[in-house]
Design goal:
Two copies of one chain form a homodimer.
Chain A (H helix, E strand, L loop, with lengths): L20 H8 L3 E5 L2 E4 L1 H20 L3 E2 L5 E3 H6 L12 E4 L5 E4 L4 H9 L12 E8 L14 E11 L2 H21 L6 E7 L6 E8 L5 E6 L4 E4 L5 H6 L7 E16 L9 E3 L5 E3 L1 E8 H12 L16 E5 L4 H16 L4 E4 L6 H11 L3 E5 L1 H5 L3 E5 L6 E3 L1 H10 L2
Helix pairs in contact in A: 1-7, 2-5, 2-7
């Protein structure tokens, strides 16, 4: 894409009320627009990142047998009363709104009820199970404070998968698969090395739930990490019993600030019971379905990547979720240089390499370099009179200090072999 | 996909309060789930159709220079007060909800304000224009009645593009391109032959807006159609002046019921003025940006296709938006037949043909045929002991009466050359 056709521009400053690093950088670089505290629109560059994260998650969910659908945002009182979660005194995260012809509806803050209610129509026999449906959708939570940029939204884009299994054994087998799938997602998104499976409070149906916590200084959670095994314990269940139960040694655990980028937990029959979600087994006996819940906030993941990897010049995107792979900069207004830059752009595009081509006129090299650093695209290619003298393109990775001049042919090989 | 892995099942009946044909068929076939009047969840088959429609629209929008982004659902009072559309007495379609820490937010019912407000930050010079941003998102409208299934939702999935042009001439040029893009969308979605560009009421800035009206008996609009030219007039502007102005002859116009599947209109400076959206031209003079609006409801389009093309046995999907291209039916429980059906399934899948494979056991041929008719997938392939005797697969198109036995090799060629 030609940058001259991209309507967003970089800014020197973010809104004064924006105190989070992720939103500050993303707003300045033109990835998002702040509508109000905790509510952001995704501009073209931001949507590209979000879509890449979505595709990684989709691939991993499909791999374990997930099947995609899309539940509605509007939720009815009748459905949520079954599980006793309609009342604002019980769930205080609700946004509710009034129908013109009477009655109130809620805005999804999670999906257990919607899925249980839908599945109730389709599940009756052991042959109907297991089922692993999921969706991506906007979720709404009435947060009192919302100061963490896209890491804690009042409105946010969320993946939720629910597992419906015949028994504990089948449930546990899938739950283990999801642990791996989640680890794959964070690895593929570029924060695997900072993300730890963390034991957190369970519920009536399992001793622990599992969070995936990414260690960053602005994390809202406190975890205790065993760096050898990569296992962590959330503060909420950090006690001698847990430490011993997990075979860890207290003295080796390090306290860290971290952000929860995903969580998975066993629901047991918490929802299948109120929704009367049962199946007949081979002996025609009725059993309650065993459920599990597996969530990831895509904005939170995107914000965490920014927080974790950015430097003082701007964002650093991992290749897997970068809006483009290559940021091609044309320097100066010499006609031959312009022609060569056009040629490089077309060649890369023909080779299916995603390029943002900074073809803007009237900007100094310094301005273009600063913009490239702020935007954080992994490979910076520069075409200038100097690079042409050296018969190539100057290549520099965003996280490297120095570039080198390489021929276009070599570049194509290089990109083919990169992640 | 194996139908045994698809958790939805067909039903004999839709909910008793569902009076629209589109929702009745889509619910019975397991494409959607009714949450409440005007609110539907999209089950796996339904989401596949929605995604295909989305991709057709995206391709056409990108072709005319559109750039995708995604605005937030939550809208702030301050922004909408600028255009004087916050007050419920002025816009009665609003859903509003309260923030826990005070204040009210609205749920998007359209996007003019959000886009104007965002673009205001980025547009200052003639070099910044034109811009054609668009998004797909859920839109909410507080409809009093909602009895048309997915054709009129309280919550619905919507594409909106806004054009930002320097002057009337540039605006008109783009507007003409969008007419063609819209016609392409409806053609590609399989209802081009029933869809007519219709002159409807304009506003302060243009005499007419343009609707794309699909002729179906349950349409909520009345249009007057000139069948020779394919031009129609909406009842709201149907008068001697309009007829004469368009060069039509009153006696030749036929009254039809139709549903508006898309609309485009010129906004002039209706929004650029309150948002102070101006640019400096080549002479450093300030001018207001000229805007246009271009919307399509994806659920409405999907519902219209069902209404327009279904027969008394069920849905008939056009190939372009069908959830799968082929519905492969395995009949009987003979091991050789099963083996052959598996082979056909794998061969089609390997050739990148989307197949729903009805591998379910314990269903009669009649039940499988009835389900296939209800689901409406374009090609029905049957593997049975009879088709094997004839050394092939029995093929029938959903809209044909009789099938014929064809070899697998010929089928692959046939599918390659179909739409």
């Amino acid at each position: 894409m030609r940058q001259s056709k991209l309507f967003t521009k970089t800014k020197k400053e973010a809104p004064t009320d924006e105190i989070s690093k992720n939103a500050e950088l993303l707003i300045r670089a033109g990835f998002i627009h702040k509508e109000m505290a905790g509510v952001y629109s995704y501009l073209p560059l931001g949507l590209r990142v979000l879509n890449k994260i979505e595709n990684i998650i989709r691939e991993e969910m499909n791999m374990v047998g997930g099947i995609e659908m899309r539940t509605a945002v509007f939720q009815s009182k009748e459905v949520w009363e079954k599980s006793n979660r309609w009342d604002d005194d019980i769930v205080d995260a609700w946004f509710k709104t009034k129908l013109k012809n009477g009655g109130e509806v809620g805005l999804s803050f999670t999906n257990e009820e919607a899925y249980s209610n839908i599945l109730k129509q389709y599940v009756s026999s052991y042959k109907d199970l297991p089922i692993y449906p999921y969706d991506f959708k906007n979720i709404f939570r009435n947060e009192v404070r919302s100061k963490s940029g896209i890491m804690r939204g009042r409105e946010f884009y969320w993946k939720a998968l629910y597992s419906f299994s015949r028994n504990e054994e089948e449930h546990n087998e899938f739950y283990e698969k999801m642990k791996v799938a989640y680890q794959n997602i964070f690895k593929r998104s570029g924060i695997g090395h900072l993300t730890y499976m963390t034991f957190a409070s369970g519920g009536s149906f399992s001793k622990y739930s599992h969070e995936f916590q990414t260690v960053i200084s602005v994390g809202e959670d406190t975890i205790y990490l065993d760096e050898d095994s990569g296992i962590a314990i959330n503060k909420e269940v950090y006690n001698d019993e847990t430490i011993k139960g997990l075979g860890l040694i207290k003295e080796k655990l390090v306290e860290k600030r971290a952000v929860e980028v995903g969580n998975i937990f066993s629901l047991g029959t918490r929802f299948s019971e109120p929704f009367d979600l049962k199946y007949k087994d081979e002996k025609s006996q009725e059993n309650l379905v065993i459920m599990g819940s597996y969530g990831i906030g895509l904005g939170r993941l995107m914000g965490t990547v920014v927080e974790a990897l950015a430097d003082d010049k701007g964002i650093i995107w991992p290749e897997s979720i970068a809006p483009f792979k290559v940021h091609l900069l044309l320097l100066g207004d010499d006609e031959d240089v312009k022609k060569e830059a056009d040629h490089v752009y077309e060649t890369l595009t023909k080779n299916n390499i995603e390029v943002l081509f900074d073809d803007r006129v009237g900007l100094s090299p310094g301005e273009k370099f600063a913009d490239a650093d702020l935007l954080g695209i992994p490979y910076r290619f520069v075409v200038s009179s100097r690079s042409m003298k050296d018969n190539g393109v100057e290549v520099k990775k965003r996280n490297e200090e120095k570039g080198k001049v390489v021929s276009l042919e070599e570049l194509l090989v290089l990109l083919k072999h990169s992640a």
